[in-house]
Amino acid sequence: MALGPCSLDLQKRRVELVRDWSKHISSLLDLLFNMGTVTEEDLSLIRGGGHTGELDCMRTLLDVLQGRGEEACRAFQFVLSNFKTSTASETGKAKLFPQNTHNMQKVLKEGLQKHKDILAKHHGPVLSSYLSSARQTSRSAEVDTFTDITFCRQVGYPVPLQYQHEATVVGDSFRASRDEAKRRGQTCAFRELYQSLLCVSEDGVALLSGVAGSGKTTVIKRLVQQWAADVDAQKIVLSMSFRELSLITEPQSLQGLLSDHYSHLKPVLPELLTSTQGQVVLILDGLDEFCFPLDFERTPKCSDPERELSVGALVVNLIKGNLLPGTSILLTSRPHAVAKVPQLLVRQFYSVLGFSPAQQKQYFEQNCSSSQAAATVWSFVSSHKPIQLMCHIPAFCWIVSTALHEGTSCLFFDTVQTGAASQENGSDSTKEVSGAECSDQSSSDPNALLANGPAAQSVCRPTTVTEIYCCFLKSIVVFHVGGCMEGMHLNRLQDAPRVLRENKGMLRCLGALAFRGLLERRFVFDLSDLSSFSLDSCELTQAFTVEVLKEDKASLTYEKSFHFIHTSVQEFLAALYYMLESFSGSDPFSGLKPAVPALHKHLMSFVNKLRRPKRVLHKRVKKAFRCGESHQSGHMDLFCRFVSGLFVPKTRFILDGLFSGEHRPRLASCMNLPSVSPPFVVKLLRSQLHSSSLSPERQLNICHCLYEAQDSELSLHLQHWLTVLSQQTSGQCALLNRDWSELAFLLQLCPDLQQLKLDAQELDAVGLRRLLPVLPLFSTLSLAQNPLGPEGAEVLSLALRSPDCQIEHLWVVSTDLGCEGFRNLAEGLKDNRTVFDLRMAINHIGDTGAACLAELLKTNRTLRDIRLRDNLVTDSGAELLMEALTENTTLEYLWLFDNKLSKECVQKLKEFSKSRSTLDIKVCF
Ligand SMILES: Nc1ncnc2c1ncn2[C@@H]1O[C@H](COP(=O)(O)OP(=O)(O)OP(=O)(O)O)[C@@H](O)[C@H]1O
């Protein structure tokens, strides 16, 4: 084959090229690889495993190019003609490798000790929270306040079906039906996690998943601190956050990245990367915050730590084990982002379940300044189910402690007065607070929810999640400067309305930022975001905002970014902004557009006030809920709950001073204020609850909204459902307008309930669909004598396919399934690994249904006991079942009484059963 001009030229100049260009071989190879002229395999051939000299490398490169043809040779000529002879990195490289091995070992050891010290400091306590700064004197390090936390170890990872707000389903992991999982040893504590990740020599990827604020970063800090303190530690930990990696926009080599990040390791880095590979544990925190795509299929393979790559390609090659082979990699992520890493690449999967009730109690003991204060907070939390449910998330425990700080600071005005009075009388105000109102209720008693539900509450105790957040914000704003010194509480609280009024502007801007972030699903903001809402970062550091908006300075680029201390705080501030704007007659959405001139905004607000303000307000509320409805991911759920809560005048009174024009003349107490949302809000919520277009998850959220709105009807309905659950009533319900979503709400708040028995409750497919968010959480589901029909079976099938499914006993006797219904159910059972006891007598599934069951039994290995009494199965159906059972050896009982079987067939079934020692077929003629 004739050679092209470029190939000929290279051939002619070969000697000259080898002589003049060999010293630049590394850079030339980088450029050619990035252009796609040479491949990963070519590179290893050219480098000859690192043992080949530069001249030989150059010769091989020329051979490879010649072999590739004219295009490759032309690309090479192009590279040569554009090559800048600045190869400082290569000349410097020789200096990085001291020749003497003994010296190298010493340098490496010293470097690693220094690295340990630096990393321990980096991952040390950050005294940014109000509570920690207030308690600097009594507690020296965060290490002391680390509360053990519960994890769950899984094989592979379940991709969560995201229909609900992540934070709102956390408590599900602690349901009693999970005890089985515990027995199987799937849950573990921090010690086991440390052992498995930092002591055992296993390479590959481990993934730690948890919702916002579940403590992933705290766990990483703790792991690093423990490792740094462990003199026998064999591992070398490198740790970075995805938030920092997201700021790298230029191609970067792994070596460059590590030496920028850990400049103290620079002298030993090449040695570290080559000789200690099996020992390195690389921690990458916060995968959900990584803003570059991770393309595991198409990213070119690269195993050269010196090659510059885009940061996305770098991460892909690290996770795939191409760069740093033999290294253990620990990734952390919120659940919605775990699927960014293909399941096959994940060796171990842990999810952070959060604090169990015992750990919650321990948290308050460790974080409140006295054991009495801890007892007060704990008795309050354990008697308010919706609040306790959220306390599985550590960040929420922190919010609760801050809100109820020492049990006195953030309670309502009249409580303060009670405190003042008791102080005057020489009694202890903390005792007042921890009195009878906070009596400890058994957390296992569902009645506790109602006893302390909104309607049953004394007027001045925080009862809802919104009220907790109001107290939290007030605490932060009022006590920010100077902390909460002894004896200063009352003065400061009495001055709170003025302080809040003065900070209203700042809170409004912060809320607008939070709201826009929420609409765009953004949780990290940069300086330009802040300035578009007139927030000046310098001003922010002077104000209370450091407690709610956290500043991150990337160690790699020194760029500033900001995020709210917890996503729920962002959601609360967004709702607060929404309500402030709505009450003042402005449109919260127009406040997000910087282009709207201030004059126009004021004009509009004035016009709105003249128009019927109530109608405008109604419009805004509808818009807020529509916003929540349209997002099936559920990420607006908490926002809607807070909006509902902020409609309650008593709740708003906590933030007296912010909502101008209200409570005038000033009320000395919240006692006279309504403790329920205005009727139009409750009416709107109720009409939404009955809307057939809403998904069951959103309907469930509406119940939470009603709880926040302190709707008294909800309490009544829940009381009714409690009676149903205790099986005191059956058949026709005593209550008109009962709603199955309300039952779902109640069930979510009763973690100790393992069995859901709703026999003969006239539960149809529509009602069952409303229960769907909680159906998978029970070990026994007894739904006999309800008109479920084929549509109901479809709903059950969805529950059976849920990754959270715990159902073991499924009892659907006499539920009108028919053959179509059973076909739907069988679809769900095909993928299910939990149901072993299926009772479905009197469902008329017939031979078509029996054929479906036979198909199912060929693959299902979980079902052990199937009861098919009275189902119109004839001989041909029975034949199909026997045929399937020759393949299935796990089924133990098959009940076939009262079907349409001939005498011969019954005999045959009995013979078949006799021939199988582990199978008992119950049948009679
Ligand atoms: N084990 C723990 N003991 C005591 N406090 C904890 C613990 N875990 C978390 N916290 C508290 O909760 C807060 C949030 O935790 P952390 O930042 O670790 O959560 P995260 O899961 O990393 O959240 P995100 O997904 O938002 O990054 C911490 O600042 C700390 O106050």
The total tally of domains equals 5
Helix content: 40-55%
Strand neighbour order, sheet with most strands: 2-1-7-3-6-5-4
Overall pLDDT level:
79
CATH architecture of the largest domain: 3-Layer(aba) Sandwich
Distance between the termini: 87 Å
> What is the general shape?
globular
The rounded Rg comes to 33 Å
SS strand fraction: 5-15%
Q: Name the structural class.
A: alpha/beta
What's the CATH C level of the largest domain? Alpha Beta
Question: pLDDT under 50 segments (min length 5)?
Answer: 85-100, 126-143, 406-459
Query: How many strand units?
Result: 16
Distinct ligands, ions and cofactors found in the model: adenosine-5'-triphosphate
Largest sheet: 7 strands, mixed
User: Could you name the CATH homologous superfamily of the largest domain?
Assistant: P-loop containing nucleotide triphosphate hydrolases
Q: What key phrases describe this protein's structure?
A:
single chain; 925 residues; alpha/beta; Death Domain, Fas; Rossmann fold; 5 domains; 16 strands; binds adenosine-5'-triphosphate; nucleotide-binding
Explain what this protein looks like in three dimensions.
With 925 residues, the protein is an alpha/beta fold. It folds into five domains: 5-85, Death Domain, Fas, CATH 1.10.533; 109-124 and 147-354, 3-Layer(aba) Sandwich (Rossmann fold), CATH 3.40.50; 364-500, no CATH class; 503-651, no CATH class; 750-922, Leucine-rich repeat, LRR (right-handed beta-alpha superhelix) (Alpha-Beta Horseshoe). The protein is 49% helix and 8% strand. It has 44 helices and 16 strands. The strands form three sheets. Strands 2-1-7-3-6-5-4 form a seven-stranded mixed sheet. Helix 42 links the parallel strand 13 and strand 14 (865-867). Adenosine-5'-triphosphate binds next to helix 12 and helix 20. This is Si:dkey-118k5.3. Belongs to the NOD1-NOD2 family. One of its GO terms (biological process) is innate immune response. Residues 204-337 form the NACHT domain.
